[in-house]
Amino acid sequence: MSNFIKSYQANVGLNHTPAYQVSGQPYAEAGIDASSETSVTFPYVTRWFQVINKNSTPLKVGFSSNGLNGTNYFTVSASGSSGYGVSDVLELKVSEIHLLGGNGVDVVAGLTSIPAGRTTTDSGTSWSGSSGVG
Hints:
By secondary structure, the chain is mainly beta. It has helices spanning 18-21, 65-69; strands at residues 25-34, 38-41, 44-53, 59-62, 73-76, 85-86, 96-100, 102-115. It has one domain (26-119): Jelly Rolls, CATH 2.60.120.
Protein backbone atom coordinates (compact mmCIF):
# COMPACT_ATOMS: atom_id res chain seq x y z
CA MET A 1 0.00 0.00 0.00
CA SER A 2 2.81 2.39 -0.69
CA ASN A 3 0.60 4.31 -3.19
CA PHE A 4 -2.20 4.91 -0.68
CA ILE A 5 -2.85 8.62 0.00
CA LYS A 6 -4.27 9.48 3.39
CA SER A 7 -7.47 11.54 3.10
CA TYR A 8 -5.96 14.50 4.92
CA GLN A 9 -3.16 14.59 2.31
CA ALA A 10 -5.35 14.24 -0.79
CA ASN A 11 -5.60 17.15 -3.19
CA VAL A 12 -8.90 18.99 -3.51
CA GLY A 13 -10.76 17.99 -6.68
CA LEU A 14 -13.98 18.75 -8.54
CA ASN A 15 -16.06 16.38 -6.42
CA HIS A 16 -14.81 17.76 -3.10
CA THR A 17 -18.20 18.63 -1.59
CA PRO A 18 -16.94 20.91 1.21
CA ALA A 19 -15.44 23.28 -1.41
CA TYR A 20 -18.99 24.02 -2.61
CA GLN A 21 -20.66 24.10 0.83
CA VAL A 22 -18.81 27.16 2.05
CA SER A 23 -19.11 30.71 0.77
CA GLY A 24 -16.95 31.42 -2.26
CA GLN A 25 -13.83 33.57 -2.28
CA PRO A 26 -14.89 36.86 -3.92
CA TYR A 27 -13.86 37.61 -7.47
CA ALA A 28 -14.82 40.69 -9.54
CA GLU A 29 -13.63 42.03 -12.85
CA ALA A 30 -15.21 45.23 -14.22
CA GLY A 31 -15.13 47.14 -17.48
CA ILE A 32 -14.22 44.16 -19.66
CA ASP A 33 -14.00 44.99 -23.36
CA ALA A 34 -15.83 42.16 -25.15
CA SER A 35 -16.29 43.99 -28.45
CA SER A 36 -14.16 41.16 -29.84
CA GLU A 37 -14.07 37.73 -28.26
CA THR A 38 -12.40 37.79 -24.87
CA SER A 39 -12.12 35.28 -22.07
CA VAL A 40 -12.23 35.64 -18.31
CA THR A 41 -9.97 33.08 -16.67
CA PHE A 42 -10.68 32.39 -13.02
CA PRO A 43 -7.73 31.47 -10.76
CA TYR A 44 -9.84 28.75 -9.09
CA VAL A 45 -12.91 26.78 -10.12
CA THR A 46 -16.08 28.80 -9.58
CA ARG A 47 -18.81 27.92 -7.14
CA TRP A 48 -21.03 30.44 -8.93
CA PHE A 49 -20.74 33.41 -11.27
CA GLN A 50 -22.83 36.24 -12.71
CA VAL A 51 -22.38 38.46 -15.77
CA ILE A 52 -23.53 42.11 -15.96
CA ASN A 53 -23.92 43.62 -19.42
CA LYS A 54 -23.69 47.43 -19.49
CA ASN A 55 -23.87 47.55 -23.31
CA SER A 56 -26.76 48.58 -25.52
CA THR A 57 -26.36 45.28 -27.42
CA PRO A 58 -26.90 41.70 -26.19
CA LEU A 59 -23.84 39.83 -24.89
CA LYS A 60 -22.97 36.24 -25.83
CA VAL A 61 -21.47 34.10 -23.03
CA GLY A 62 -19.94 30.69 -23.72
CA PHE A 63 -17.86 28.15 -21.84
CA SER A 64 -15.37 27.73 -24.70
CA SER A 65 -14.35 29.61 -27.83
CA ASN A 66 -15.93 26.87 -29.94
CA GLY A 67 -19.20 27.16 -28.04
CA LEU A 68 -19.25 30.95 -28.28
CA ASN A 69 -18.69 30.83 -32.04
CA GLY A 70 -21.09 27.94 -32.54
CA THR A 71 -24.41 27.32 -30.82
CA ASN A 72 -23.38 26.53 -27.23
CA TYR A 73 -23.73 29.92 -25.55
CA PHE A 74 -26.34 31.96 -23.72
CA THR A 75 -27.22 35.62 -24.11
CA VAL A 76 -27.33 38.38 -21.49
CA SER A 77 -29.81 41.10 -22.42
CA ALA A 78 -28.70 44.55 -23.46
CA SER A 79 -28.87 47.42 -21.00
CA GLY A 80 -31.83 49.71 -21.34
CA SER A 81 -34.01 52.20 -19.52
CA SER A 82 -34.89 49.56 -16.93
CA GLY A 83 -31.25 48.90 -16.03
CA TYR A 84 -28.33 46.68 -16.91
CA GLY A 85 -28.66 43.28 -18.51
CA VAL A 86 -27.87 40.74 -15.79
CA SER A 87 -27.54 36.97 -16.00
CA ASP A 88 -28.86 34.68 -13.31
CA VAL A 89 -26.39 33.60 -10.63
CA LEU A 90 -25.13 30.41 -12.25
CA GLU A 91 -23.93 27.71 -9.88
CA LEU A 92 -21.47 26.09 -12.26
CA LYS A 93 -17.92 24.82 -11.80
CA VAL A 94 -15.90 26.47 -14.58
CA SER A 95 -12.41 27.93 -14.86
CA GLU A 96 -13.16 30.35 -17.69
CA ILE A 97 -15.95 31.97 -19.66
CA HIS A 98 -15.88 33.56 -23.12
CA LEU A 99 -17.62 36.85 -23.92
CA LEU A 100 -18.62 38.66 -27.12
CA GLY A 101 -20.81 41.70 -27.56
CA GLY A 102 -19.44 45.05 -26.48
CA ASN A 103 -17.48 47.12 -24.01
CA GLY A 104 -18.37 47.47 -20.33
CA VAL A 105 -18.99 43.96 -19.05
CA ASP A 106 -18.64 43.03 -15.38
CA VAL A 107 -18.17 39.51 -14.01
CA VAL A 108 -18.55 38.56 -10.35
CA ALA A 109 -17.96 35.09 -8.95
CA GLY A 110 -17.52 33.03 -5.83
CA LEU A 111 -14.44 30.82 -6.10
CA THR A 112 -13.75 27.46 -4.50
CA SER A 113 -10.34 26.31 -3.28
CA ILE A 114 -10.06 23.95 -6.28
CA PRO A 115 -7.24 24.81 -8.72
CA ALA A 116 -8.55 25.92 -12.14
CA GLY A 117 -6.53 23.22 -13.89
CA ARG A 118 -8.93 20.60 -12.52
CA THR A 119 -11.40 21.43 -15.31
CA THR A 120 -8.91 20.66 -18.10
CA THR A 121 -9.96 17.92 -20.52
CA ASP A 122 -8.11 16.30 -23.43
CA SER A 123 -9.66 18.99 -25.68
CA GLY A 124 -8.82 22.03 -23.56
CA THR A 125 -9.67 23.99 -20.47
CA SER A 126 -12.99 24.48 -18.68
CA TRP A 127 -14.81 21.55 -20.28
CA SER A 128 -13.88 22.59 -23.85
CA GLY A 129 -14.77 19.77 -26.21
CA SER A 130 -17.53 18.48 -23.94
CA SER A 131 -21.07 17.98 -25.19
CA GLY A 132 -23.04 21.22 -24.74
CA VAL A 133 -19.88 23.29 -24.30
CA GLY A 134 -18.31 23.18 -27.76
